[in-house]
Amino acid sequence: MIPPDLPSPSEVPPANREAATRLGHTMRRLHKHISSLVMGGMQDELQELDLSFSQMTALHHLRAYSPATVTVLSERTRLSLPAASHLLERLVQRGLVTRQENPENRREKLVALTGAGRAVLEQMDSAFVGAYISTFAQLNPQTIEAAEGHLRALLNELEPAAACAAPQETV
Asked: What pLDDT, on a 0 to 100 scale, did the predictor assign at position 108?
């Protein structure tokens, strides 16, 4: 599966693909140390918040690509248009998203996160970061700082506009 807006593997130079493959395998190893903490916490939070995995996925997509049409959200979440519309209606009723007419195309609806929707994601982010903190806190501080520097360099290339204005995140 290729995430939206990324080139297919055949469009990437071989040297980049090889380096990315090595990094991908390294990240998979790292993920093994984190995933049980993250997934267990996520399951607890979804139950506590009475959210389905699909609803959480939609909230995350809206945070990244808001506002979005129902059609775009349907494609990004891989749900049928009726299923996405029904899911969004439940999120609207809970006050986590808004749905309004698209001023450029009155037949379309635009959906966006509300403050309450952002708060739900921030709560989940805090638990997610907590899993990383509890895992990394036992490591050598110099190793952590070196890894953070390299990860920031990766993120600066992935998010060039955000690199200039990105404040340090704290938990």
From this structure: 86
Domains of the chain are: 13-50+115-158 (no CATH), 52-113 (1.10.10.10)
- Give ∠ CA 122-123-124 in degrees, rounded to 5: 90
Which stretches in the chain have pLDDT values below 70?
A: 1-5, 161-171
pLDDT of residue 13: 87
Could you give the count of Cα atoms lying within 13 Å of 110 in the half-sphere of its Cβ? Answer: 13
Structure tokens at 53: 């995995």
Q: Report the alpha-carbon distance of residue 145 to residue 142 in Å, rounded.
A: 5
Return the pLDDT at 33: 83
Distance CA 115, CA 95 (A): 9
Where does 30-154 show beta strands of DSSP type E?
68-69, 97-102, 105-113
- The residue type found at 98 is T
